[in-house]
Amino acid sequence: MAKFMNRLLLKPFTLLQSFILLCVVTLIAVLAVITLEFAWAENLRLRYGETDWVLPSLVAAVLLTVAAGIVTMAVLFYRLKLKRPLELLKRASENISANDLGFRISYDSHDEMGELVRAFESMRTQLEKNVKTLWRSVEERKQLNAIFAHDLRTPLAVLKGNAELLATYLPEKKLSEEKVLDLIHTMNLHIVRLESYVEAMNSIQKLEDVPVHRQSMDVISLTTLLNDSGEQIARKFGKRFVSSMECDHTAINVDPYIIMQIFENVVANGVRYAVSQVNVRYVVQEGSIKITVSDDGPGFSDEALHKADLPFYRGEVWDATEHRGLGLYVCKVFCKKHGGSLHVENGPRGGGTVTASLGFGDPS
């Protein structure tokens, strides 16, 4: 009965209108009952005559009727207009307190409580969006920090290797001046890379925000720098490093630091799975430079061919201190930012092959 009244009578009305309507209905009911009580009192008077107890009984009955009407009206108003939305809001508040935002609340009514529930649901939806945005931001920052930590190892390893080389052979004058200057130049380039990493970590919130700073440079100088890093990486794993080049441009317009990050990640991935040797081939053609790294290892599994460039995919390798499954993902993102792409496949003679293609414009 209460649901029927609420659905047909009170649902379209506001709280004040519903309260007034219930007051009117209750007043009518109370008046009807009081009228019956007066008729009852008159019947008693006619039956027993003028007695002292009829009037007090009538007054008591009227007062009880009025009190019962007031209580009934209050109970009906609470049950019909307040109980359900308050229960919804209480349950929703408990869920939010428990950090559970994956729920929905609705209350099909046009009164103020319905508006309050809808406003609460709107607040919950916005809060859920904000929490998801914050969570994504934190995850992207964690991923970016992991990527920076991953990519810092190679320049640090190069600096360490060159410093040990200088410390070992320079006092004995076994290094020519040209070789010393070449080592110092290489070390300076990697120091600049470390500085750019530090600056980027302070300003970049996600990997896709890494800027591309193109500059004109000679292909031979770039590939020489890449080969030095490749040899350092291969030596660390006890593997051979062999490179070749096909070039019809002597100058290109690229970001050398992004190319170095791509190259070092692909080479590091190759030497990790190679049996004895990693081959690198540079192909510089009209509008693009392709860097193909192949190894003589077992090659990519069917799963890895589809997932190797996904973040944190590590295949069968679970050494978290050395391999976080970020290298090829970084390469894919950087290749795309540099106007190219990353392609993963198995070579015709076995072994894995990764080709990084990067676009370049005319050198300025």
Describe the structure in your own words.
The protein is built from 9 helices and 7 strands. The termini are far apart. About 0% of the residues have low confidence. Helix 3 runs parallel beside helix 4 and helix 7 packs antiparallel against helix 9. The chain is α+β, with helices and mostly antiparallel strands and about 375 residues long. The strands form 2 sheets. The protein has a 5-stranded mixed sheet. A two-stranded antiparallel ribbon has the order 1-3.
What's the arrangement of secondary structure elements?
Elements: H1 2-10, H2 15-48, H3 54-97, H4 112-169, H5 177-203, E1 215-218, H6 219-237, E2 240-247, E3 251-254, H7 256-273, E4 277-285, E5 288-295, H8 302-307, H9 327-337, E6 341-346, E7 352-359
Parallel strand pairs: 2-4
Antiparallel strand pairs: 1-3, 4-5, 5-7, 6-7
Helix pairs in contact: 1-3, 2-3, 3-4, 4-5, 6-7, 7-9
Shape label: rod-shaped
* Strand coverage percent: 5-15%
Which secondary-structure class do the elements indicate? alpha+beta
Largest sheet: 5 strands, mixed
Number of strands: 7
Q: Please compute the radius of gyration using only Cα atoms.
A: 40 Å
Short summary:
The protein is of the alpha+beta class.
Question: Keywords, please?
Answer:
364 residues, alpha+beta, 5-stranded mixed sheet, two-stranded antiparallel sheet
